[in-house]
């Protein structure tokens, strides 16, 4: 079952890297170096794929964590915490992708600044919560004892 633990951790770490790079490097840089309208179009074009990758990686991690929890080879509390954090990340990403992203895009297209600002703020908050949940999962796994029974 160590392979499942590794798979879950690689998926979550990969998502955190993608999310941090896009949120703290790519998007701000786009708005700094190109016209604001074009930068908005660029970010709007990238976001659906961004969320798709997050959903896929978190779904894989959640599935791997659930299999570990069901197998009983890991302490129950840690296993359930992993499933819960992966599930939370997955739900937050789905909500952002299915509900918030279309609201933001429609507000952007009709130039409703107030509605866009609200959708953007909500999206940033959901992204932040997803990052925190992923970081919590990595910290939990990093500082937990070995999962081998022979130790």
Describe this structure in words.
- With 151 residues, the protein is an all-alpha fold.
- The chain has one domain (2-142).
- It is built from four helices and no strands.
- The protein has helices spanning 2-33, 36-71, 76-109, 113-142.
- Helix 1 (2-33) runs antiparallel to helix 2 (36-71), helix 2 packs antiparallel against helix 3 (76-109) and helix 3 (76-109) packs antiparallel against helix 4 (113-142).
- The protein is elongated, with a radius of gyration of 18 Å.
Structural key phrases:
mainly alpha; disordered C terminus; 87% helix
Alpha-beta content class? mainly alpha
Mean pLDDT: 92
Q: What is the global morphology?
A: elongated
Low-confidence stretches: 147-151
Please tally the β strands and state the result. 0
Q: How much of the sequence is in beta strands?
A: under 5%
**Helix content, binned percent:** over 70%
Please compute the radius of gyration using only Cα atoms: 18 Å
Count of separate structural domains: 1
Largest sheet: none
Count the DSSP helices.
4
* N-to-C CA distance: 16 Å
**Helix-strand topology string:** HHHH
Short structural summary:
The chain has 151 residues and is mainly alpha-helical. It contains four helices and no strands.
How are the SSEs ordered, and which strands pair?
Layout: H1 2-33, H2 36-71, H3 76-109, H4 113-142
């Amino acid at each position: 079952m160590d392979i499942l633990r590794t798979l879950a951790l690689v998926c979550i770490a990969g998502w955190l890297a993608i999310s941090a790079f896009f949120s703290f490097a790519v998007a701000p840089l786009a708005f700094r170096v190109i016209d604001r309208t074009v930068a908005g179009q660029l970010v709007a074009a990238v976001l659906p794929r961004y969320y798709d990758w997050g959903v896929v990686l978190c779904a894989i991690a959640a599935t791997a964590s659930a299999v570990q929890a069901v197998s009983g080879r890991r302490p129950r509390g840690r296993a359930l915490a992993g499933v819960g954090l992966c599930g939370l990340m997955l739900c937050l990403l789905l909500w952002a992708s299915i509900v918030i992203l279309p609201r933001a895009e429609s507000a952007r297209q009709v130039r409703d600044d107030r509605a866009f600002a609200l959708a953007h703020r909500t999206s940033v908050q959901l992204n932040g919560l997803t990052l925190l949940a992923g970081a919590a999962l990595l910290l939990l796994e990093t500082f937990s004892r070995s999962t081998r029974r022979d130790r």
